[in-house]
Design goal:
The complex is a heterodimer of chains A (530) and B (353). By secondary structure, chain A is mostly helical. Chain A is built from 20 helices and four strands. In chain A, strand 1 and strand 2 form a beta hairpin. Chain B is 69% helix and 7% strand. Classes of the chains: A mainly alpha (530), B mainly alpha (353).
């Protein structure tokens, strides 16, 4: 051993090869660090990107709402509200008539005979329908004038954009050749507004007309039909009272009122309509989708929470070890079933099964059975429960497993039974873990796409919660479903595209919130195990 | 022991333990309820498995040699023609039908069912390509990041925040990653619907899961093992290579296999980024330049299931295709999931401290 190597024995750094001033150690560290940096940046970028694409939505939506107001279409829509109420009334009346025809057929009358019977009351039905005509025509005319103005305004806007791009590319002559007119909405609106007195007159006639013919409502000998006609009278009187309210709103409407950005925000978050590709106005309201999502999730949690926690308690505390070793991997295995397969099962088997079961004689006492739609919130919720159970089970079982054995032993030594120990000692101790398991299961259900897309029925309407439990058998649409369904056909950068990004952002925030609370609960209520 | 003593003892035991009290009855009832709920869950899942395996098996398997429906596994999806010719009923996929028709002069009236003929080979190939690419990206980024976070980074507030946000991102719905991938890769980067856009979307979807699971399994290794290695003069990398990675391997492997199952099973992220409903060519056919491979859409099993179950009506001919696809898909996913569960059980027995 020569002197030099002896000296360097104690200077470990001398042995290290370096390349471009980097030793292997620091190069490796740089590699790992670089990767970590890239991952974190990318994951941060996802959040930023969602915000960036979504944020533009409110500006566009506000412009659209402003156009809707300035063009006066909002004014027409107020009148149309009244028209819709009236036609709902007419529809109800028609349902009485068709019920009458059905009943006659049941009683064994042939077509000619029943025709003769229904003819007696026919005049009343026609008279009532005629009452609705003037209002409808007034609304249609106003709508035609204003939407023509709106359409040509949009055309002009497109033209001026086209002109701008022509100018940018230096094609001056072509740009000059474009004829761009200014559209003055006030002009068009004044035409409509000037006929407001006509509208009031129409309403007066309408009320008078209804009041005149209401006493001549036909009399049916049948109790059911009679009850219906009584109900119709009530509804008609309610409508008459409402007319003045509609009128008030129409008269008080102002074209000049501006649309603040907050209105765009509230009409997204609290909006009750999600209407796209409409000829009058597109609406992007979150409530129908969100209520659908939550309804499906509630149904799923209704099944998943008791079953998941029950199974966790059973496997962790009651089952023999062989049973445990088989059941645990099996349930983990369930969590690996792809959602699209479960959705397919829902379409092919489960939905039809539910509808068949609802048609059973023995279940006829339930007033919303038999159900008409095989794909509804219940179908989707029932299947989603199966997807949430493994999540809830695994996490809850973990939480139960973390309860120290000494707790159990102490409780048993006091003479309590196993059940008492489980319910009074083990479950309360593990409660924080169980709650966070339920929360994470809920998060999984809210974020699930394919099952709801395939099985929830996809009807964009707020479920009628007023109808009680039967609401779970209504088809709904969900936040995840709407993205999956509509994203394929939107134009890049359009308002619709950005609206879908906003929905995605809301989903993102909901899932972050759920995760955050799940972690908070675990940390906050953790018992000390000293 | 005299016989009389034994009798006394037995009766004592009976009075102590054998007596049926109210609380014992309640206990037995409640336990029965728990057991019932557990087995109900298992039964529900089994129903799905049995239904799909039974009905799908009819499509995939054959009663004579080679026992597998080779056409179904090797052909591409086609329209199915059902017709009667000279008193016999035929069912043919589109390509066969064309060659059959050439030999016959008279016109044939057929009923057609979209997607119901042929097979699903392009979907299987597409899914395999998607999984392979996405996992390569996700594993490289994920495991290396996890090594840095667990071994090199200094503990502190920033690290905790990073860890927390990664954990939170793991719970974000897959459709959100789908909409991100669509906006970012497909539209903003101009990659269109392509394999590479799907790779990145899927990779970023599983990245948080892989990072947090791998890091978790590295942090679970006792600090003493690292200290022992340092005390012997090993460098940090040597320590990681010899004393950390081998013990963390089971955790990393299971997390990555779970990642594979997730990547293969998710539909929502690839709906807009990588999947075509129907494509005649296989991914490697008809390429002008080698890198065109990355910039083309592919068919994928989960998306195919969605298309055939949502877009075409249910009847005897279409359901064969639907169930067959679902069966093959479920089989692949089940194989992956099962291997992860078995691997973990084996590895747990091997490494203990």
């Amino acid at each position: 051993m020569d002197k030099r190597s002896f000296k360097s024995r104690y200077q470990l750094a001398c042995n290290r090869k370096s390349f471009l001033g980097l030793t292997r150690e620091s190069a490796l560290k740089g590699l790992f660090g670089g990767n970590a940096f890239v991952s974190i940046v990318v994951l941060g970028l996802i959040t930023l990107f969602l915000f960036k694409e979504g944020a533009g939505f409110f500006g566009q939506y506000r412009d659209s709402l402003l156009l809707y107001r300035q063009s006066g279409l909002e004014y027409v829509e107020l009148m149309r509200g009244q028209q819709n109420a009236l036609s709902a009334l007419t529809r109800y009346l028609n349902s009485i008539r068709s019920r009458q025809v059905e009943k006659l057929a049941e009683e064994g009358y042939d077509f000619q005979e029943s025709r003769a019977i229904t003819e007696e009351s026919e005049d009343f039905f026609y008279d009532f329908e005629d009452l609705a005509v003037p209002l409808r025509e007034h609304v249609i005319e106003a709508n035609e004038i204003l939407s023509a103005a709106r359409d040509s305004y949009q055309e002009m806007q497109n033209l001026s954009e086209h002109r701008k791009s022509l100018l940018e590319s230096g094609r001056q002559d072509e740009a000059d050749a474009l004829e761009i007119r200014e559209i003055d909405f006030a002009l068009f609106f004044d035409i409509v507004k000037s006929r407001e007195s006509e509208y009031i007159e129409i309403n007066e006639n309408l009320i008078r007309g209804i009041e005149e013919i209401l006493p001549s409502v036909p009399y049916f000998g049948d109790a059911e039909l009679q009850a219906k006609t009584e109900r119709f009278k009530e509804l008609a009187e309610m409508f008459i009272e409402e007319v003045s309210k509609f009128e008030e709103n129409v008269l008080a409407w102002e074209r000049a009122r501006s649309v603040p950005i907050s209105e765009a925000f509230t009409s997204f978050i609290f909006g009750k309509k999600w209407v796209t590709n409409s000829s009058i106005q597109d609406w992007y309201g979150l409530i129908p989708l969100m209520s659908g999502s939550f309804l499906v999730a509630l149904v799923a949690m209704f099944f998943a929470v008791p079953l998941g926690i029950g199974a966790a308690i059973y496997v962790n505390q009651v089952a023999r070890s062989l049973e445990r070793d088989l059941i645990k991997p099996y349930i983990e295995f369930i969590s690996a079933i792809p959602s699209v397969v479960i959705g397919f099962f829902g379409i092919a088997v489960f939905g039809t099964l539910i509808r068949e079961v609802s048609g059973w004689e023995s279940l006829a006492w339930i007033d919303f059975f038999p159900i008409s739609e095989r794909l509804n919130a219940f179908t989707a919720g029932g299947l989603l429960a199966l997807m949430a159970i493994p999540t809830i089970f695994t996490l809850a079982e973990d939480a139960l497993n973390n309860v120290p054995l000494s707790y159990k032993e102490a409780s048993m030594a006091m003479g309590s039974t196993r059940l008492q120990t489980i319910l009074r000692i083990i479950v309360p101790t593990a409660l924080s873990g169980i709650i966070s398991a339920v929360l994470l299961g809920f998060g999984r259900v809210i974020g699930e796409t394919m099952v709801v897309l395939l099985c929830a029925g996809n009807r964009i309407e707020i479920p009628r919660f007023a109808e009680g439990i039967g609401v779970v058998f209504e088809p709904v649409h969900t936040m995840t479903g709407i993205i999956a369904q509509e994203l394929g056909e939107v134009v890049h950068g359009s308002m619709h595209y950005r609206a879908l990004f906003m929905v995605g952002l809301v989903l993102f925030l909901i899932s972050l919130l759920i995760n955050y609370f799940a972690q908070k609960i675990v940390m906050k209520f953790q018992i000390s195990r000293g | 022991m005299s016989p009389s003593k034994t009798v006394v003892r037995e009766s004592m035991e009976k009075s102590l333990f054998g007596k049926s009290t109210k609380s014992k009855v309640v206990e037995r009832l409640v336990f029965a309820l728990f057991r019932l709920s557990t087995y109900f869950v298992l039964l529900c899942a089994a129903t799905i498995f049995v239904d799909i395996v039974y009905k799908g098996g009819k499509t995939v398997f054959r009663s004579e040699f080679p026992f597998l429906n080779v056409e179904f596994l090797s052909d591409s999806p086609q329209t199915l023609h059902v017709f009667e010719h000279q008193g016999r009923k035929y069912e043919m996929s589109d390509s066969k039908f064309r060659s059959f028709r050439e030999g016959i002069d008279e016109p044939i009236v057929t009923e057609t069912y979209a997607y119901s003929g042929g097979g699903i080979w392009p979907c299987i190939a597409g899914t395999l390509l998607l999984v392979a690419g996405a996992m390569i990206i996700a594993m490289t980024l994920g495991v290396l990041s996890a090594i840095f976070l667990s071994e090199y980074s200094r503990p502190g507030k920033i690290l905790n925040a990073v860890r927390l946000s990664i954990l939170n991102l793991a719970g974000v719905p897959s459709i959100v990653f789908g909409i991100f991938g669509m906006g970012m890769f497909v539209l903003a980067f101009g990659w269109n619907v392509s394999l590479i856009a799907g790779w990145f979307t899927l990779a970023f979807m599983v990245l948080p899961i892989i990072i947090s699971a791998s890091e978790e399994s590295m942090r679970a290794i006792p600090q003493g093992m690292r200290d022992a290695s340092f005390a012997l003069g090993a460098t940090q990398w040597t320590t990681i290579r010899t004393n950390v990675l081998p013990y963390a391997m089971p955790g990393i492997l299971t997390s990555s296999i779970i990642g594979v199952a997730r990547v293969a099973g998710e539909t929502a992220p690839i709906m807009f980024t990588a999947a075509y409903a129907l494509r005649d060519q296989l991914p490697w056919e008809g390429l002008e330049r080698w890198y065109d491979l990355f910039f083309q859409g592919v068919m994928a099993l989960p998306y195919h299931i969605y298309v055939v179950s949502a877009k075409i009506p249910q009847n005897e001919y279409t359901s064969r295709m639907q169930y067959g696809t679902a069966f093959v898909f479920l089989f692949i996913i089940a194989a992956i999931a099962l291997s992860s569960i078995l691997l973990r059980i084996r590895m747990r027995k091997k490494y203990r401290w």
